[in-house]
């Protein structure tokens, strides 16, 4: 037999039974909710009802916050998971980074590879650790919202964007701040600039030569948007193609990599250079 909990205060009843409640209008949403007890993620209304984020960015943030620590959230993995494609997903990640829901930095591993470290923030402006309980802190004043992000100028595209070529280009861009501390930008900006740097490398320049060319003769004043400055320089100072190129008959045919499906030139099908390196490191 069911018993009533008499210690619970009864809900307040409106005098008209809620018939004229302002939210009970024809066509309005009606919530049929049940409480989750397992496998759920708490999402703040500041994200779910964000006034400036696109619907794709909000959904992507919810997906990322629901993943376990260590899960891959790079553009390729997300594009394999969702139908929106790499371009739209990259734009949504830039939105989340602009509004503080993501922090992404390029780092070089002990093996020399460039990797992107991603930190997901469920409350921008605050830091925490989900593995331990910390004492409550006094409320802090809200930080001012960053201004809307302006799109970067387009950059040249390589004829054959092989993974190893793009990885070398990312290494070039990641090392520019050592040439001049003002040339520091986010991992999202580096992904946008990487094809432009790859187009320079494709023209026969070494990585050191590209770094010197991009960091030489910088203006003396502060660089307010270093990534936009580099995008312009990559386009305006793009070297010409080599005067001699081997005839097509003497070059290896295009193959599709068995792992990442990117095009590469080789005598026979198999793995591209980047995937071969990954396989050798994992062996």
Provide a concise account of the structure shown:
It is built from ten helices and four strands; from the N terminus they run ααααββαααααββα.
How would you sum up this structure, described in words?
- The structure is a single chain.
- With 283 residues, the chain is mainly α.
- It has three domains: 41-123, Arc Repressor Mutant, subunit A (Orthogonal Bundle); 151-242, no CATH class; 253-283.
- The protein contains ten helices and four strands.
- The strands form two sheets. Strands 1-2 form a two-stranded antiparallel ribbon.
- Strand 3 (254-256) and strand 4 form a beta hairpin.
- Helix 2 crosses helix 4, helix 5 crosses helix 7 and helix 5 crosses helix 8 (207-215).
- Residues 1-8, 10-18 and 130-136 have low confidence and may be disordered.
Strand fraction band?
5-15%
Secondary-structure-derived class: mainly alpha
Q: What's the shape?
A: globular
Low-confidence stretches: 1-8, 10-18, 130-136
State mean pLDDT (0 to 100 scale): 80
**What Rg is obtained from the alpha carbons, in whole angstroms?**
26 Å
Annotation, overall tally of beta strands: 4
Strand order in the largest sheet? 1-2
Helicity, in percent? Answer: 25-40%
Instruction: Give the biggest sheet.
Output: 2 strands, antiparallel
**What is the string of helix and strand elements?**
HHHHEEHHHHHEEH
- Total domain units: 3
Termini separation:
64 Å
SS element count, helices: 10
């Amino acid at each position: 037999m069911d018993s009533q909990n008499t210690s619970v205060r009864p809900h307040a009843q409106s005098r008209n039974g809620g018939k004229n409640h302002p939210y009970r209008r024809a066509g309005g949403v009606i919530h049929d909710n049940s409480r989750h007890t397992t496998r759920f993620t708490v999402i703040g209304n500041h994200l779910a009802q964000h006034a400036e984020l696109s619907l794709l960015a909000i959904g992507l943030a919810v997906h990322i916050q629901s993943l376990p620590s260590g899960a891959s959230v790079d553009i390729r993995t997300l594009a394999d998971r969702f139908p929106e494609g790499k371009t739209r997903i990259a734009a949504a990640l830039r939105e989340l980074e602009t509004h503080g829901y993501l922090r992404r930095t390029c780092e070089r591993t002990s093996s020399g590879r460039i990797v992107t470290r991603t930190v997901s923030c469920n409350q921008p402006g605050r830091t925490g650790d989900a593995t331990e309980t910390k004492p409550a802190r006094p409320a802090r004043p809200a930080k001012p919202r960053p201004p809307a992000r302006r799109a970067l100028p387009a950059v040249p595209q390589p004829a054959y964007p092989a993974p190893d070529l793009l990885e070398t280009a990312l290494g070039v861009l990641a090392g520019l701040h050592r040439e001049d501390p003002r040339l520091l930008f986010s991992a999202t900006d580096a992904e946008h600039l990487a094809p432009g740097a790859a187009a320079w490398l494709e023209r026969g320049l070494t990585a050191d030569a590209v770094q010197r060319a991009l960091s030489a003769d910088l203006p003396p004043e502060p660089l307010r948007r270093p990534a936009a400055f580099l995008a312009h320089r990559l386009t305006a100072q793009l070297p010409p193609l080599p005067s001699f190129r081997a005839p097509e008959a003497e070059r290896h045919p295009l193959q599709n990599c068995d792992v990442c499906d990117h095009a590469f030139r080789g005598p026979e099908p198999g793995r591209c250079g980047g995937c071969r390196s990954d396989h050798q490191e994992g062996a």
